[in-house]
Amino acid sequence: MSLQHQFIEFALDTKVLRFGEFKTKAGRLSPYFFNLGLFNTGATLARLGEFYAKTLLQARERGLIEFDMIFGPAYKGIPLAAAVAIKLAELGCDVPYAFNRKEAKDHGEGGTIVGAPLKGKVIVIDDVISAGTSVRESVKLIEAAGATPSGVLIALDRMEKGGNAEVMTEVSAVQDVRDTFKMPVVSIINLNDLLAFMDEDTPMAQQARPFKDAVIAYRNRYGA
């Protein structure tokens, strides 16, 4: 069973991935909903970190990405970066990690960066890229410290154009990050992985299959 298949089953089992009719932040009616915040127990966060870590190591082995440390943008990226750092160490790749505060601290060590100093090639860890705002902020912080942003690792690439239900951008938010910052964006799964999963002969895939036509129609309308 592929890593992508395992992750989709994990997301379905924890109700992080659901099918139905959901209104997105952009005002679109989506046939699926993905909420990484529902990985909210120690056990699920540990397993999530393992999926991120294995995806990152596989991407490095394939020459897609290089890194010396990882960075988690506040707020969702903070527990993600910690979980990924722990799992990377367990897999034999012990690297530093850091995250940022939303507001600068004026006492103690001060500043906005917590954890290891930002050095070398830095991977940004996040859940999804919707508008790319947190990535842009992370890039500024990393470059301001004299380090190099070398890529972004996310859980799901929805592979859809930016904008809203009526007005769309030419490319997806993920592609915009790739084009703007000239760096790779790697995801544990993307929309094509989800569609491929629906064709597999497993109980969970069979439960998801009735929504396949709706997912395809959504992709045809908003896909990048």
Describe, in plain words, how this protein is organized in 3D.
The chain is α/β, with parallel strands linked by helices. The protein has one domain (3-222): 3-Layer(aba) Sandwich (Rossmann fold). It contains 8 helices and 10 strands. The chain has helices spanning 3-13, 42-61, 77-90, 133-144, 173-181, 191-198, 203-208, 212-222, and strands spanning 17-23, 29-34, 69-72, 97-105, 111-115, 121-125, 148-157, 161-163, 168-172, 185-190. The strands form 3 sheets. A 6-stranded mixed beta sheet has the order 5-4-3-6-7-10, with helices on both faces. A two-stranded antiparallel sheet has the order 1-2. Strands 8-9 form a two-stranded antiparallel ribbon. Helix 4 links the parallel strand 6 and strand 7 (148-157). Helix 2 packs across helix 3. The protein is globular. The mean pLDDT is 92.
